[in-house]
Structure prediction request, 112 residues.
Amino acid sequence: MVFLLIISFNWEDRFFGMKLDGTIAGMFLFLKGIVAVLLLCIILIHPRNIRLAAILATLYYGYLFIDSSVTIQTNTGKWYLFAFPFVLFILVPLLLLVPRNRHSEDNGAGAG
Prediction:
């Protein structure tokens, strides 16, 4: 959603360190915002497929993380490696992919 907000203020973005301006930047920001909205729709429409949504979100935020890291290293002369919030954006969906133990209640069956 932040990309859709940025598009209303400043049509400027970066793609792996290269500066984008004007219509191209606006389309790129709009596309990133639409992908985020589509991920939200997948979660809302198909809540049982949370693993699929987590995989897609991990891929999406993984791309944003790599793009951001390259841009940060390009602009800072390799002083900084990455932006910390993007690490969190990748970790949260990855936690959804970790298998959880589901305990079934035995109700005393088989107890001797």
